[in-house]
Fold this sequence. Notes:
alpha+beta, 5-stranded mixed sheet, 14 helices, rod-shaped
Amino acid sequence: MITSDVRKITSAPEAVRARALAGRLTAALGAPGAERARFLTALTARLRQCLGQGGGELTLTVRQAGPGAAAHVRAVVRPTPPAPPWRLTLACSDPPVRKPPGLEDLDDTDPGQAVLAADEETAALLDQLEEAERQLRLHREELHQTNQGVLALHAELEAAALTQRRLLDAERAARGEAERARRLLTFLADASAAVTVSLDHEDILRRLPELLVPEHASHVDVWLYDDQEQAARNGPRSAAAVAAARTDRPQHAGTDGGGAAWTEDLSPGGTEPTGPVLSIPLTVRRTLGVLTLTAPGDHFDADTTVMLLELARRTAIALDHALRYEQHRDTAEALQRAQLTDLPATEGLRLAARYLPATRGLNIGGDWYDAFPQPDGSLLAVIGDVTGHGLHAAVIMGQLRTALRAYAVENDSPAQILTRLHRMLRHQQPNLYATAMIARFRPGDPHVVWAAAGHPPAVVREPDGSVRVLDSRPGLMLGVPLPFEYEDHEAELPPGSTLVLYTDGLVERRAHGIDPGIELLGKTLAGLDGSDLDDLETCAEALLKPLVHDPERDDDVCLLLCRTAPPVTREAADAPSCRQPAQVRPERSATGRHRDGGQAAGQEGGSRRPGRL
């Protein structure tokens, strides 16, 4: 629906009535107040402009799409002089509450009423503006309160963030300290294991610099009071080391304190020229020496100082154990060497021996060998093994060796000597046992008489290279709480034969027993050539090499070689320089004991070489 109204504007009353018409029309159509005021103000200004230019024409047009739809008011002002028209459209956003009146119904207003009506419109607009200002003040106050709350919230958040940052920094620092402490404890544990695993004090002294340099110290020096050779090698000691030795307390020398309450700082005059040093006494039951460390930087921090003090304490314990062990070992080895006598030189027989102590423990045990002549001219070769290991076994071994020599003076047979040893051991050492084997050689006799007490069998290599084992059943071990009489056995031993006596450490292996070892010994002995047999020392080494190959043995090895003189050839017998008196073969009794001795064809020597492979 479209309605229009055209009015001539030639005077002020006409302009007032046109303006009033537009006001009533827009009010009736429900135009918004602010938009309506702008529309009417702009229209009034254009009408005033037209009056100043000689008049004009106003056209008001109402457009409405249908009943109940919002209407649009359009004002077009055309000045009387030819000029571009002015157009303005007002959209009434809400539909009118009642049917809009016709333009002819709104045209009865005089100018005075129109002015009054304009003032009312202005008053209504001012009320709206006042209400808007009031709402604006309320919103401004709410915004101010909101801003204050936001500012307070920001302040609280900033304070919380600062606190959280400080907590994170403290946590990070605590984690760093914990990680550093963990590294120090790990190093302390590893270093302690490295120094305490060894029983060689020289090895401990070598390991300390390897462990501490360069992370925890730039230089390490250990001063042992009893080591004169080391003192001469290292020269004069530092002032801190001397003060630590004098006061028996840790001493620190440097510009910055050591950081530990239990260290004493030297005066500035005592500062070492090489940098800060820390000297720690190595004290266990007594003070062994002083450990002196030079700082890797400009100072020792407190945690590192505490760790070094604890490491020094553990090193002192390790050194004390090592020095005591070395002292006991040297004593034991001296005792063992005293028991290993030189082998005698006897006619028609050559001897060679080896003793290898166990590489674990005190390097001393109950294995022994012996060889000595008897009053009747015969020679007894003895080998034995006392059960157990250590100093006590060596002492019992010495007692058995002495008793055996004493019993042999009475010219008893090997079996009778073992029987008397068995009785003695049962009486004096009821909880100790031993094995032994005695072989008796008579000059010129191609036989050997032997008796064994639970000992591994002897092995014989004959001149033709064949090997046999004297495997007659041995008697009980010495000391077993049973009465027992041992028996003599006789074996043929042609000239040029080699009899091998040994202890179980040579052939016994825990995983395989003793039989494979005896078999390997026989094969090794059979594989030797004549030159090896001529030199018994070489022969002994050749026998030990394939059998003793474990560097960590826990049992002693004892070996005794007895080689009879080879027969004299016809050419050698006819030679003037080689003629010897005729040999007389001694007679033997039923028990194997010789009633008289024969004259030997020559004088042969024996040798003994205890040692290690």
